């Protein structure tokens, strides 16, 4: 796309990125491709290219030097994978982007935009990245401006203001003006200088084409009970369980002045595992799985082969097993059949409020909160009903035979 002049922006709605030349709205089907999984079961050649409009390489991580990025997420240098990914995307007429930051790669984001001098250097670093790898766009996955993420990020009360100033400067650059820009965000709008969510983020919509709301990890091992990883809705849940959802996140962003037509719904191809004693797992002694069951937080079930083992994070803090289970992992471990349905005799429940499923292994006493075709279809319908721009799926390699991708596409591209 061509970024219009700022003058034109004052008189026109921001619809450029969402429209094709014929004026028909084109929905965005986006996914993040995790570079470190390329040689671990999901290679560039495994991407179902015809089902995406853009693919975003994860990650270019920040480093102590504003002039330097690292492709070494999870200790695997993936620069060669990025080169392959862009080439394959372009062969397939799909846009290629790079996501900058990520959960483990945002340590220096705050510093990089922390002064006028650094913002200029950061714009140069990122436009060089675009030129060097022939990118169509950048995604800013700063987790999070004005809020601590992993534990050792630089954070400043000025982060969100500085981020906006950086975006402005990037758009003034001819390369920055010519690419798609998105931010991967929390369910709450950007944090203001007083530490709470801003009530007016409309200015961001002038510089960002899209905000991708990461509506996942809403419940996990840190929560008080089992709960939905990626709730579509929580307004229908008891007050104690209203921890966020696509419904409340879209409401928060649009009430803060961000246009719904520039929002992408982030959707997960993985779930979270919880250790739930059988006594808690079934509602009222029935054979129906309980919602919001109590779990044993001193047990940390392992997820699938892609799950992080216990160890130390990039801040040096001790970690337990992550318990992440990809959709393919649920099939591989026998929870689901090859068509993605609960296997015979495996306890399963679909929560009608969060519109997400839960499944249970009575032997290991592990309960998993995840997404399936039904929940992805519901999210796809929500995208259409709310007039959102499309979806962004974490991550390309988590699906099984494109069951999830097909389910959401069927609604979004109906
Ligand atoms: C991944 O695909 C690239 C080409 O896209 C190929 O060069 C590489 O050998 C593949 N790696 C694996 C592990 O299959
Ligand atoms: C990548 O990270 C791993 C572990 O974090 C480290 O051992 C390795 O030296 C790094 N490689 C590069 C090229 O930075
Ligand atoms: C600017 O970047 C440098 C290194 O890249 C960093 O040391 C410094 O703290 C940054 N300045 C601010 C104000 O964050
Ligand atoms: C935030 O920016 C203002 C100027 O815009 C500056 O006076 C203040 O020192 C900055 N605060 C921090 C924590 O960097
Ligand atoms: C703008 O983007 C188009 C398409 O990606 C590219 O062909 C063109 O060279 C770019 N222009 C500039 C100034 O970077
Ligand atoms: C923080 O700022 C927001 C506006 O961005 C305002 O609505 C809110 O009342 C402020 N909170 C405090 C505690 O000052
Ligand atoms: C939000 O901010 C923009 C400029 O940043 C301003 O034009 C608009 O009036 C503000 N909206 C509200 C509801 O205050
Ligand atoms: C969310 O729940 C509320 C309260 O039950 C309901 O009014 C609303 O229609 C629901 N929205 C969706 C998208 O499910
Ligand atoms: C369990 O019992 C309580 C009270 O008897 C009832 O409100 C609730 O709906 C029951 N739950 C299920 C899943 O049957
Ligand atoms: C939780 O698991 C630990 C370790 O297996 C066990 O010692 C403890 O008894 C369990 N607690 C409950 C309430 O089941
Ligand atoms: C439950 O776990 C047991 C022990 O690891 C395993 O043999 C069985 O296949 C699992 N069942 C399901 C449905 O995942
Ligand atoms: C969800 O709704 C369906 C159909 O209305 C119903 O059969 C099912 O019991 C409900 N599930 C739960 C967990 O309440």
Automatic annotation (TrEMBL):
GO terms for biological process: chitin catabolic process; polysaccharide catabolic process. Residues 27-414 form the GH18 domain. It comes from the Eukaryota. Transmembrane segments: none annotated. GO terms for molecular function: chitin binding; endochitinase activity. Pfam families: Glyco_hydro_18. Keywords: Carbohydrate metabolism, Chitin degradation, Glycosidase, Hydrolase, Polysaccharide degradation, Signal. Gene3D superfamilies: 3.10.50.10, Glycosidases (3.20.20.80). One of its GO terms (cellular component) is extracellular region. SMART domains: Glyco_18. It catalyses: Random endo-hydrolysis of N-acetyl-beta-D-glucosaminide (1->4)-beta-linkages in chitin and chitodextrins. Residues 1-17 form the signal peptide. PANTHER family: CHITINASE (PTHR11177), HAP41P (PTHR11177:SF392). Belongs to the glycosyl hydrolase 18 family. This is Glycoside hydrolase.
